[in-house]
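Hey Z.,

So I finally got round to the NAP thing we talked about over coffee. Here's the setup:
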Amino acid sequence: MATITLYGATGTIGSRVLREALERGHRVTAVLRDPAKLDLTHPGLTVAAGDVLDPASVAEQAKGSDVVVSAVGGGDGPGHVATVRPSAEALVDGLRTLGADAPRLIAVGGAGSLRTPDGKQVWDAEGLPEFLLQIMHAHGDALDHYRTVDDVRWTNLSPAALIEPGERTGAYRVGLEDLLLDADGNSRISTEDYAVALVDEIERPQYVGRRFTVGY
Ligand SMILES: NC(=O)c1ccc[n+]([C@@H]2O[C@H](COP(=O)([O-])OP(=O)(O)OC[C@H]3O[C@@H](n4cnc5c(N)ncnc54)[C@H](OP(=O)(O)O)[C@@H]3O)[C@@H](O)[C@H]2O)c1
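And the result:
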């Protein structure tokens, strides 16, 4: 059983991570800007108020946990720019203050920086709308930051290009820097199976200090 501090528990991905973690018997503290927004009671769940953009708040909420999970987003492009890398910096800065006792960190990333079969990156595709490019590069900037960090045990988990609510199959493939494509050439994962992969990484750490990706 792990103790998990979770940011983004009200979100599409974070709510699936929350459910998966609770169903597997882990203890979760969901840290929200507005705790009233989480309409869930469960014996393994504690809800707390906190700010992922404030290192002191992160340290306070993370202290004593085994792992911090960040599934935060920002809605539109500018919202992601204002949230994704700044939260990466605040999470790292907050965890640093806990020294050797700091929990590890698993952050939900983006698919934009993954390599495509033509040797480019997902965000190089022609015709992508500006808001999506901003979101992709916000995640790329956060990953760039994590890659400078060697004193906090971080992991960045990029979804497949398409992630949406669906079935929990429990089956997924894992990659590192390359976009995962299925037999039909599509890159996809359900939010439920993404959550399975993330909680698997909590239970059996394999990608500390690295980015990895999951897809079918
Ligand atoms: N293919 C891809 O690469 C891909 C696809 C989908 C999503 N993603 C990424 O995955 C992440 C999660 O996506 P999602 O669809 O689950 O997002 P979402 O449904 O919009 O949820 C975002 C969550 O972040 C929280 N949040 C935002 N700003 C915060 C702050 N300053 N402090 C604390 N919490 C904050 C929100 O809390 P409130 O309830 O307080 O607003 C909410 O729980 C995003 O970064 C998104 O870009 C990547």
